Amino acid sequence: MSAYIMNTRHHVTGLVIPLLFVAVGGTAHAQSSVNIYGIVDTGVEYVNNVGPSRSSVFRVPQITGTLPSRWGLKGKEDLGGRLSAVFVLESGFAPGQGTLNQSGRLFGRQAYVGLSSDDFGTLTFGRQYSQIYWGLVGDTLAPNLYGAGVLDPYLYNSRVDNSIAYSESTKGLTFGVTWSLGRDAVATPAAGGCAGQSPDDWKACKALSLMLKYEAPQFGVATVFDRNYGGGGTASPLPSSSQSDSRYVVNGYFKLGPTKIGGGYIHRMNEGSEHPSSNYWFGGISWLALPTVQLDAQYGILRVRGADTGASAIGVRAMYLLSKASAVYVTAGHVFNQAEGTFTIDGGNATTSSNPVAGVSQTGVMVGIRHYF
């Protein structure tokens, strides 16, 4: 799949605005199109066991409901010879406050331009997703706020600045590679933030990701390698460029009629941690019970070698499809922390304000509405 096309889990229909550029002197150039698209997804959630007082809170999530809210522009110009110019500008926002997510950036989700060839693939430049984002085919809950991102927030925040990406698809097989010349200093450490491009350290804050994926009508599999290099200085979780944080992913799914069963495994080696090695297994099921009712469930377990800082989490969701563009849903989740684990079930909150104290489990429930445009 070309890099400018959104992942099918997040695909939205858009308003197509045809543009015809005519050069001075009346020579007609190839036709272009710009799509305006977006998602507004919000609601109200309840989370218990917050902080040392184990209080309960009601709030409107900031980052995601069942999908993160965003709007964007996606364009393509036919240059002839089976070659096109492409671009994407995509902005994430919090519907509850009307503010920008991704640390306040206007186009914090994606901002890139490039060339796409029907014969040779797509090459793009700018702020883009790591390949781990495109390779999580076995995640049945995707960026739902009580999903796989609860135990590894990086998975659906894996974007890199100053990057070059290439992808090519043929007969269901997709290869992708992304190389960043310097991850940004704006993002949080959990989202891969660093000190940006360095003028004197060639490895500092670089990032590399590789993906190989095969998808057929009834099944799909993918493997991903994702590595962030350090160099962010003493305040960073990876102070030196000689350190790295790597994830190795294998996952997949298969379909049985209206049912999709998926799962995967992620091995992580984080050289900035006292206990660098961890393993994350997840599995889930999605069932279209009726043409207008979808039910989902997923379970994940994270274990850190040599420490009781891991957790397990379960998430469920029931969605009623009002139309192709609109849906209402209720989703719930519970995280079981180990003795030293402090994971929050609240994947829709951008800060640590929902975290429980070490060893305390937590439950969240949300009622929401989602609309594509």
What's the arrangement of secondary structure elements?
Blueprint: E1 15-19, E2 32-50, E3 55-59, E4 70-80, E5 83-94, E6 99-100, E7 110-117, E8 121-129, H1 131-134, E9 159-170, E10 173-180, E11 207-215, E12 219-229, E13 244-256, E14 259-270, E15 277-290, E16 293-304, E17 311-321, E18 326-337, E19 362-372
Antiparallel strand pairs: 1-2, 2-3, 2-4, 2-19, 4-5, 5-6, 5-7, 7-8, 8-9, 9-10, 10-11, 11-12, 12-13, 13-14, 14-15, 15-16, 16-17, 17-18, 18-19
Structure in words:
By secondary structure, the chain is mainly β. The protein has a single domain (8-372), classed as Porin. The protein has 1 helix and 19 strands. It has one helix spanning 131-134; strands spanning 15-19, 32-50, 55-59, 70-80, 83-94, 99-100, 110-117, 121-129, 159-170, 173-180, 207-215, 219-229, 244-256, 259-270, 277-290, 293-304, 311-321, 326-337, 362-372. It has a 16-stranded antiparallel barrel with strand order 2-4-5-7-8-9-10-11-12-13-14-15-16-17-18-19. Strand 5 and strand 6 form a beta hairpin. The protein is globular and about 65 Å long. The relative contact order is 0.16. Mean pLDDT is 90; it is low at 1-28.
